[in-house]
């Protein structure tokens, strides 16, 4: 299967430079000149394997790493003195929404400013389709990062079922999704992603997902999942992801692993024990984590039964999942004056209790088919540390280029800063979780 070229060094996942697309001469068919080389000297090298830092020089030829070790400059070679600095691989963001903003922000500043040189799009069941057309556009676009993508189950489901998706798919519809999935896999998709907490994926049966995951497995792909619940039914949702991996014979990557409910706080070890048990039974299940106690999504995501008139469900959400003072309106198209305010503040402005305001805001946005999103605090810092230290979690931002949530421009640096300085991870471990381990979880060898 053809995959989008990612310039990862063979063996250790070392990225000193990351350039998207071939040089201009390769595009025109002209002979490629001998690439100019640069030599980086004087740095402490952390190579992305988890090995201890060591002094080493790195030679870059064109957009490739040519040599690593005790190297002397060549005649005419550009020498970069990195004394006192750490040289590390460019980071791979395995769960990113940066790709969606590259047309408006080709510099990808939110990504590259935190060391990310490769972003993986198509997360949470949403992707471009046909994927090949988008990747071809990017091949010649002046964007600052490498881009790969999963094929989104939700995208395929909407293509096949249209607006009639609030039900189980028929066998013929699953077959139609499989045909579209094969096209995206042939175009270079890394595998299948799902967003089982979102429409339309929330209405899919486990059997539907298994059938499509088998198609991805046949192509050597992976299964990346925003699982069906990160709160009330977390452990059931994890079991479902494990079952999909086992029955489809496919590696599973759980997206932004978290315990997003107050009554779940402190149970991270129990959650990881379940994942370790699955791994011991032969299921290759891994996860990514971002280092924040607050998330960003829609207001409606907190209603797993999709009954937005259920006041008890709304009250439960505000009590256990996202307290009014910890839920901030990031976007509210019907009334932008609410943006930047907490739900508690909005309720006070409206002269209502928070539950009433929450339900009213959802009802208006749905009636107007308007965009809305929230940033809400639901996680415990101690759980995040426990999850991040698990040997099989890599770092992912889950962020975009819009700047609404700091994870889009600060997830990787927050790990390298506070988490390393506090002793939660060694610097070499942190870099490994951003490079070598991330590449392994994506199935990228080169």
**Tally of separate helices:** 15
Fourth CATH level, the homologous superfamily of the largest domain? Metal-dependent hydrolases
Largest sheet: 6 strands, parallel
Alpha-carbon Rg, integer: 22 Å
Low-confidence stretches: 1-30
- Estimated structural class: alpha/beta
Overall pLDDT confidence: 92
- Report helical residue fraction: 25-40%
Tell me the number of structural domains.
Answer: 3
CATH class of the largest domain: Alpha Beta
Strand tally, please? 19
The 3D shape can be described as: globular
By CATH, the topology of the largest domain is: TIM Barrel
What does this molecule look like?
The protein has 3 domains: 24-87, Urease, subunit C, domain 1; 91-293 and 383-442, Alpha-Beta Barrel (TIM Barrel), CATH 3.20.20; 296-377, no CATH class. It is built from 15 helices and 19 strands. Mean pLDDT is 92; it is low at 1-30. By secondary structure, the chain is an alpha/beta fold. It has helices at 24-28, 109-112, 131-139, 153-161, 171-187, 206-218, 234-248, 268-280, 311-321, 343-350, 354-367, 381-389, 407-421, 427-434, 436-442, and strands at residues 37-41, 44-45, 54-55, 57-61, 64-69, 78-81, 86-87, 91-93, 116-121, 146-149, 151-152, 191-195, 222-226, 252-254, 285-289, 294-297, 327-332, 372-377, 393-395.
